[in-house]
Amino acid sequence: MLKAVRVDDGYTNLLLPAAIARHGLSGRDAAFVTELASGTIRRQGTYDAILAACVDRPLRKVEAKVLDALRLGTHQLLGMRVPTHAAIDTTVTLVRAKVNQGAAGFSNAVLRKVAARSLDEWVDVVAPGTGHAQLAVAHSHPVWVVAALERALGGASAELPALLDADNVPPRVTLVARPGRATRDELPGEPTTLSPYGVTLAGGDPADVAAVAEGRAGVQDEGSQLVALAAVEAPVEGRDEVWVDLCAGPGGKASLLSALADERGARLLAVERHHHRAALVRRAVGPAPGVLVVQADGTHAPLPDGSVDRTLLDAPCTGLGALRRRPEARWRRTRADLADLVALQAALLTDAVRILRPGGALLYATCSPLLEETAAVVTGAVERLGVVVDDLAPVLPDVGDATGPLPGTLQLWPHRHGTDAMFMALLRKE
To answer: GO molecular function, one example (predicted)?
Structure first.
């Protein structure tokens, strides 16, 4: 798993289910492997600082597969309830099998040093003092991400440690009942507090739930459910028949939108640029009669001007609001990525405004709280495109403590709401 993420730019949350199924794991074994892989990647920054204090050379000079194994061993020693002898022995055996005896002896010596202190004791050693650099090591985030999240919190910067902590807590699995196809009552688990369609699973494999296996329900973070709900519940003037999901892949929001569209007699056009993601959308929405999935560029949507009543633009972004579920994103994204992403977001928003009719509703959303991708993009649209920001609070009245960076916008947070850090802005065409 670590090699696939490191070498092939794989995504942990997509690779894990396939790997677990391929090896026939279930129950506690599947949970153990999930935590071992995800937790090691999630806490990589902290573990690398600890390992650097335990080796006699720069970490960049440690062979990559040996470093992967040392990270796995360190997570077992400091982040899981694995006995010390078992964590060291399994790691050393792995290195011996994959590299050589010399590397195994080196790993044994390093992990014995790691085992001499607890995680909290090590953090005091490798991350003394205060400031962004200390928080970055202690909470395993790049320094630039720590600074960007602090800016996004605005006046609530005292919450920064709580937010960074929340990014390191594995999320519980949340299911969504697609209206008209499943009811929340038939799903096992505790009802979500903000979405009327969700439940939180206490454990087990979601694929074992009948409604999920039949495509009538799915796995979807509560924040993502709220984005779809906001796009549907925003009031429109006049006709309400043509809906568009402008960046529909991989299909979670499109599936919920299609179910809601069926209930309201509307049609949904799901637009996705990439072929493989468009295929995922088709698979997710299934044979719904009022849905058309189109592979097309959302910056040049195949629709006439002013022809759409509702548009959801869940724009491609850094994904730094979903670090609980996508632990590798914090190490993969750089500040340099922002310029291209912001330009794409602005281009997508320009065409979303073009196809929206006056009186319709456009919901702009990102799975990122970074101000460059939220407030700056929306402010640019207001200045360039003649749109206004409408107040989202009445649309989602049960969502509290979620004031966004611009008046009328909403910002969800993992440490406040237990969701991904979704940003939402409701735009109207004047």
So the answer is: RNA binding
